[in-house]
User: Fold these one by one.
Assistant:
Number 1:
Amino acid sequence: MEELARSKLEPPKRLSELAARHWGELEAGTLVWDRPTAEVAALRRLTLRDLQAFYQVTREPFSAFYSISRHP
């Protein structure tokens, strides 16, 4: 997960990347300018148990989410 955190915190290489990020915030109306930092903080709080629970809810066959997502 540290690699994902590093990639999210990496500064944009082009000005257009930064502009796209800010326009996305404006269009969504969220205006969370430090979203990458907040996402990394949330990512670092995840535990193995959290990931296992997410897997059970979303990917195990016969779970409600799995059934809905697999069959339109």
Note: Residues 7 and 36 are 9 Å apart (CA to CA).
Number 2:
Amino acid sequence: MKMIKEREASIDDALKAANKARQEMESLQADHQKLIDQAKEERDGILKEARKLREKMLDESREKALIEYNRMLDQAREAIENEKKAAITDLRNEVATLSIDIAEKLMRHKMSEAEKQDSYVRKLIDEVKIN
């Protein structure tokens, strides 16, 4: 009977040890799950921050690109305006030169005779006296 009691005590101790081991295992699993959950939260936080940072960087890049685009567009407009003004000035100069050349040729043709020259000079003098 002593052996049976010892055997029962041994089985009872083994059951208690198994129960204790199961409780410790459940506790470890709960701790493990908490660690996994914390790691997931940290991962999610890091990813969220990374997304925010990426969006901020993209926004800054877009803004810089837009500023550069507008600067280049303004420079192009200014260059076009300068070229336009230069072309108009060149055209006016050319027209003036052609007008002077034509007037000179007409005057030479008209003034080819001395009588015509004297008549024209008197006409100019009369116009000056009237004004």
Note: The chain has a mean pLDDT of 88.
Number 3:
Amino acid sequence: MKRIVCILSVLCLVAALAACAGRPDTAEETGTHEQPQPAETTAQGGETMTENTAKAKLLYQGHASIRLTTPEGKVIYVDPYAGKGYEPQADLILVTHSHFDHTALDKIANRAADCRIITWKQALEGGKHQTFELPFVTVEAVEAGYNRNHNVKECVGYVLTLSDGVRVYVSGDTSRTKQMPLLAEKQIDYAFFCCDGVYNMDADEAAECAALVGAKHNIPYHVIAAKGNKSFDRASAERFRAENRLILADGEEIELTR
């Protein structure tokens, strides 16, 4: 009888040991696992960015003045003149033409050592619309003008492609151009159309141009002629009846998405 009890005890011990061997170690079950890292993408210019990179932002300063902040934190000013918000250090300044209400560069006192200024002169060098590749943005000069106040040989608009793929079109002072139907191929995310109806096309023509360009968001700007300190008029902006209209008041900032 004692022998049987001993045999049974040994068998129980063997079974217990086998069970322990098959069970995962407690530390492995509850220990810290390596967390998946955010997917990496290669930004324009070869710079590595992660998916949680900050979004680009756009501040409409009023009239034709715009400030863009790229995902990398670079600051781009377009046609400085109106409003506030010129304190952030400039990395790039774009100017569409020579009129006073687009060329107040003295408002931008804070500039990076390598800040670049691109005006209509550089943009139309050699009589052709130029493209400028920077590490944080690609700038394509496009047609602008086509009215008695703006010569197509002395005015440009710009298409800016940011490193995250967001694309912004700024018409500059213009009426309908021959190039606008071709801009639809660029799949623009945000398009600005001047529509003052005094020195440029009016809101109806601007809406027709918006239909040609086919951007995801169509924004009226330069909605009134430059006069005094007034740089925006909502009633004038609302006359722009394009599809996918987005009205930005002066001083309003938005986050840019695709």
Note: Confidence is low (pLDDT under 50) at residues 4-8, 10-50.
Number 4:
Amino acid sequence: MGRAVEFYFQQELADNTKKAYASAQKKYLSFCTDKHLHPLPVKEHILCRFAARLAEEGLANSSIKCYLAGVRQLHLAGGWKDPEICQMARLVQVLRGIKAVQAKRGDSISRLRLPITTDHLRHSTCKQFTLNSIIIK
């Protein structure tokens, strides 16, 4: 890529996104090195193995998807055509399987959350309001 193209390519992402992607890319490249796999251009069977490894390490399904977005960015930065990860049927099935297993174990982020009660509010460390200022209907 030319300097101007590279500059504008990098400006698309927020700084925190760049940091998250860099972490994901480092983990992916390390995974590929450990398994003696060619990381680029990305291949569906490698992404499936990578996603499974991340799940085994305890990452949530949503975090795994963020890691895959970082890998996609690495692929694009290398000048390859968009791998269209969302269209990779086997990878999509693996991700659904990870989500199902995590939901069964109860480590899904979308699990039932109990409401905040007045007891919670009384014990809250927040001093910016008093319980008397809340109108309970």
Note: Helices lie at 3-11, 15-34, 44-56, 61-77, 89-105, 118-122.
